Amino acid sequence: KAKAKAKGKAKAKAAAAVPARGAPVIKRGVKAKKLADKGFAALAKKAEAKAKSTEKGSGKWSFMSDLRKMKVGVNDAKAWTSYSPAINGKIETAYATGKKDVLLVHGARKYTIKFSTMVQFRNDDPSLQRPVRRV
Questions:
Q1: What is the CA radius of gyration of the chain?
Q2: Which one, of 41, 82, 48, 53, lies nearest residue 65 by Cα?
Q3: What is the model's pTM?
Q4: What is the side-by-side strand order in the sheet with 125-134?
């Protein structure tokens, strides 16, 4: 009876290890890449064009807090939330010195902003992302 119980547990473990048909396969130990969502590409280009027109060292950074406004978000002030002055200073310093990205810590979470794509990623889950802008 003990052997049958052990076999049942082994089968259950094996079944749990195999993803359901069509489900995404998650590879353990592989770090996810921080790739910007394709939907952010046009928005990022518009935001980057505005960022270049602002003098380095004097930019005000904000993130899109309402992703439902992706289509009108560039022009809708209600879709954007400004960073705190301390975080804004850190972002602007990194941008002005020509760095590719900047690491931000907010509470227990860590975020990375990539200036090439103008997107903020959460470090523990890069699929959680949002556009940023500099005005």
A1: 21
A2: 82
A3: 0.64
A4: 80-82, 61-64, 125-134, 119-122, 109-114, 101-106
